């Protein structure tokens, strides 16, 4: 039996006041996937001109936020497009 992959795309701004690039995953997306703090998501992050900023796995931290190593291409206040799915 083939596995069905569910993917959701959303746009959000990178937080402006954070010391390192970070963004929040919308609550409804977390509910849809049944994920919470510590759970990993498969992410593809692009800017609004579709330039790839990050592709890989990241855990939800501090509740529903994504941040950490590998996200340094994102700039504070930048609008990003995120494709998220379960690993």
Strand order of the biggest β-sheet: 1-6-3-4
Q: What's the rounded overall pLDDT mean?
A: 93
Q: Briefly note the structural class of the backbone.
A: mainly beta
Number of strand elements: 6
Tell me the radius of gyration.
13 Å
- Summarize the main sheet: 4 strands, antiparallel
Q: How much strand?
A: 35-45%
Q: What string, H for helix and E for strand, traces the elements in order? A: EEHEEEE
Oligomer: single chain
Overall form: globular
Poorly predicted ranges:
none
Count of helices? Answer: 1
Total domain count = 1
Task: Kindly report how far apart the N and C termini lie.
Answer: 18 Å
Helix content: under 10%
Describe this protein with a few key phrases.
mainly beta; 41% strand; 6 strands; 1 helix; two-stranded antiparallel sheet; 87 residues; four-stranded antiparallel β-sheet
Short description:
This protein has 87 residues and is mostly beta strands.
List the helices and strands and how they pair.
Elements: E1 7-13, E2 22-24, H1 27-33, E3 40-47, E4 52-59, E5 65-67, E6 79-85
Antiparallel strand pairs: 1-6, 2-5, 3-4, 3-6
Structure description:
The protein is mainly β and 87 residues long. It has one domain (15-85). The chain is built from 1 helix and 6 strands, in the order E-E-H-E-E-E-E. The chain has a 4-stranded antiparallel sheet with strand order 1-6-3-4, with no helix packed on it. Strands 2-5 form a two-stranded antiparallel sheet. The chain is globular. The relative contact order is 0.36. The model has no long low-confidence stretch (mean pLDDT 93).
């Amino acid at each position: 039996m083939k596995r069905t992959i569910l993917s959701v795309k959303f746009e959000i701004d990178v937080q402006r006041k954070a010391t390192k690039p970070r963004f929040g995953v919308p609550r409804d997306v977390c509910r849809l996937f049944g994920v919470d703090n510590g759970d990993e998501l498969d992410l593809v992050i692009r800017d609004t001109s579709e330039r790839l900023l990050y592709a890989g796995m990241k855990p939800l931290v501090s509740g529903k936020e994504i941040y950490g190593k590998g996200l340094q291409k994102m700039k504070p206040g930048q609008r990003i497009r995120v494709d998220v799915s379960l690993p």
